[in-house]
Design goal:
- It is a single chain.
- The protein is an all-alpha fold and 146 residues long.
- The chain has one domain.
- The chain has eight helices and no strands.
- The protein is globular and about 45 Å long.
């Protein structure tokens, strides 16, 4: 079994254990997991790491944070998306919008950082077609237990 097969199995187990909607008390652990996998992915693509990030697990964590709806998590999701082409293809941009388009836009505008401006650029591309109810149904369908 190669590392990517193991990662897929690990992501499936994680999802089976915690589901898409986690209790507020588990959110710090979800954030830690996302940060860890983001760091592994970034280090690997920078040539300084030996363990790639589990992008499927990154997406599940981002989906859990999306459901929690804390606006600050847009930054973590954005960082995860920017680590590699694999990560940007796996972690949807919509996952930065768990708090909503208006709330995330206001938060990033207030931050005024380069990273916040990048998120605002992404939001400009996503806002017109973003429907949180449809997206929630899409996530549920994607991750439903068979």
């Amino acid at each position: 079994m190669d590392i990517y097969d193991r990662y897929e199995r690990d992501a499936d187990r994680y999802l089976a254990t915690y589901g898409l909607r986690v209790d507020a008390g588990l959110l710090p652990a979800v954030r830690e997991t996302l940060v860890r996998e983001t760091r592994h992915e970034a280090d690997t693509y920078a040539g300084t790491g030996t363990i790639p990030g589990n992008t499927q697990l990154m997406r599940i964590c981002a989906a859990q944070l999306w459901h929690a709806g804390a606006v600050e998590d847009a930054l973590l999701v954005h960082r995860a998306r920017r680590t590699s082409m694999d990560a940007s293809g796996t972690v949807d941009g919509q996952l930065m919008l768990g708090a909503g388009v208006a709330e995330t836009t206001a938060y990033c505008t207030a931050l005024g950082t380069a990273e916040a401006r990048e998120i605002l650029e992404d939001i400009a591309w996503l806002a017109d077609s973003y429907d949180p109810e449809s997206y929630a149904a899409e996530l549920d369908a994607w991750y439903r237990a068979d």
